[in-house]
Write a structure and sequence with these properties.
The chain is of the alpha/beta class. The protein is built from eleven helices and 19 strands. The protein has one domain: TIM Barrel. Strands 3, 4, 5, 6, 9, 10, 11, 12, 14, 15 and 17 form an eleven-stranded mixed sheet that branches. A two-stranded antiparallel sheet has the order 1-2. The two termini are 17 Å apart.
Amino acid sequence: MRRCERRRVVVSGVLGGLLSLAAADVVCAGSASNDWTVAVYYFPNYHPGDPRHERHKGAGWSEWELVRAARPRFPGHRQPLVPLWGYEDESDPAVMARKIDAAADHGVDVFIFDWYWYDDGPFLEAALDRGFLAATNRHRLKFALMWANHDWKDIHPHSRTRTPPILYPGRVTPETFRRISDVCIERYFKQPNHWCLDGRPYFSFYDLTRLLESFGSVAATRAALDEWRARAVAAGLPGLHLNAVVWGRPILPGETTPADPAKLVRDLGFDSVTSYVWKHHVVLPKLVTPYEEVRDGYFRYWDRALSMFQVPYFPNVTMGWDSSPRTAQDEEFGNYGYPFTNTIGGNTPAAFREALRRTREKLEAIGGPRVITVNAWNEWTEGSYLEPDTVHGLAYLEAIREVFGTAASTSQ
């Protein structure tokens, strides 16, 4: 793996906490052959004041409200989860700086922000724009975007007594996509700590079905992606690294899996493939499904992915799964459909560390890019988080450091 560096960066000013770069020549520096990249998904719904939430949920609402309200739903169920650092505002640069330090100190290289943009504009952008990019220590961690282009439904929380309405459709117009791609080039890809693979800024798509719906055909979608790549080059970048998140099993209401994901990845010209969470590939047959059982099921999917895709597949390690905080707490809990789903149990720090160790060992044997994705930094309401809680403290982060060492970016 080669790390991306930028030279001749001219900082022209700071507007709303976001650095504006007038010029950035992107080059790649070689790195040691044993270099690893640990990229962790970041869900940015833990800050008050988002305009959409203000309108729909009321003043000051964030997903912390669901974390606080969670209750045990069955014997042995550990809820509510309590963050060791408290219910912090991630859009505060000082708050984000502590997260950056903790991540970099424990072997995390990249935050991949779940990034939302719909036909009527951005959503949940404050964690990145006002928090991460304004943090004084932002240089310690790279960042990238995964466009979470799924339908946003009213499931925070969800009641089984009603069908959740779509608040913000994931399908967008070609004009909106052009705006999205322009914003990415000018606002994010030229940032000095944007994550690059072979010099090209990394950008990931969560929902390939909604992407196709936005353009109407495979050919039109490929043309839009190719045109974006060309505009990136014209803007002074060496190109783009476009990544596809591929599912085996949908999770969110309304999600569908492409009939032939390997052909779609090939036809759209993606550079790599990854996963978001193990549950996209493994059935949870029990109310509390053992972590090792889910891990082994995911590893079987990984074996299939190696022969399925003609581009690199970046494996995923998932910390856990429990979406019960997103359900109406006074309703019976069971495997009725997201967020009423079975859970993963036994996901101790030791079990997580073993999953990381096996992932490293397998990837070393396979060869190719040494990149893994991790779910997640802070999916508190889906039970998958590395941030410290009052039970395990920093143990999950310590597991990453024990297996992969300290992030190379910590000294940069």
